[in-house]
Amino acid sequence: MKFPDFVRRNIPLAGYSTLGVGGPADYFADIKRIETDGSESEDYHIREAKATFFVSVCEAHKFAKENGLDIFVLGRGSNVMFADSGFRGLVLHMGMSRVHFQNDKLIAEAGALVSDLVTLYENGCGGLECFAGLPGTVGGAIYGNAGCFGGQFWDIVEKIMFFDGEYFRTLKKRPEMFGYRWSIFKDNPGWIIVEARLKFKLKDSGQVTKETKRIRNLRQSKQPKSPSVGCIFKNPAESTLSAGLLIDLCGLKGKRIGSAMISHEHANFFVNLGGAKARDFIELIKIAKSHVLKKFGILLKEEIILVGDF
Ligand SMILES: Cc1cc2nc3c(=O)[nH]c(=O)nc-3n(C[C@H](O)[C@H](O)[C@H](O)COP(=O)(O)OP(=O)(O)OC[C@H]3O[C@@H](n4cnc5c(N)ncnc54)[C@H](O)[C@@H]3O)c2cc1C
Fold it and tell me: Domains in the chain: how many in total?
């Protein structure tokens, strides 16, 4: 099989998820920005033709299609759990991460870390404070409409550039395109987000700095320090109680299978105490679901994305 030079074989995935579990990917492509003439252009179509990450996305996609491989698009891996047996397809790791200002907007490539956007407060760039400490990328935050401390990521989205498998297209935000931990990208698994235009509010940088620190401290005081993928379950629509509280009320904090444990700090965070396996987390997920169903009649639904054979 002939494959592009940026595609590698048998790459262990544990290091590409904040949970630190998972076997190898058969194929793995790092999509990076390499500057070429014209890639700085403000004209989207000129950049599309010139910036090599656009070319890499197309080439990797073509390679997968020609060889009948499934594709999994990976950001920071802070919301995914890979199977112990790994993934029998091509992982597309979105590493392009340039962020720049265009007039009063922010243009961020899909692999840019949300935490890097937040630090733009030095420029008086407000409206992003609630995302302080969110470990994912712009692509991941758009895909799952990440939300925290009173905000959701689509609040700041204006326009998204994505690859639909054949063409690069743009999408202007409309209300029906997003919801609680959901976006239109979840209904279109083949779409690959490459870039987004985001809005911000010009604010006093001292004020933004203060609020960003407050949120970061709040997050640190509530969340465990051991490796995790954030909240395992969505908050159920049929209850005013959060998924974490429901699990806590079942007395499951500290419940352990192997080295996977339901956190003492936050019952919706399951942590890796070192050397845990994906199957241990699956067992814990089953336990939490069955206890909450029995006690409250509520079926919890996973927020995290499971990749591979479970
Ligand atoms: C300590 C901790 C705290 C967290 N706190 C929060 C929180 O407060 N609120 C919250 O909502 N989440 C939280 N999370 C979860 C996670 O950080 C977010 O869901 C984040 O937005 C995921 O981004 P990512 O880049 O890591 O995505 P990944 O985990 O890499 O991927 C998640 C999904 O997005 C898809 N995806 C990623 N990039 C693209 C792309 N370019 N195009 C198409 N699809 C793509 C993937 O295919 C996958 O299905 C937390 C996680 C941790 C570890």
Answer: 3
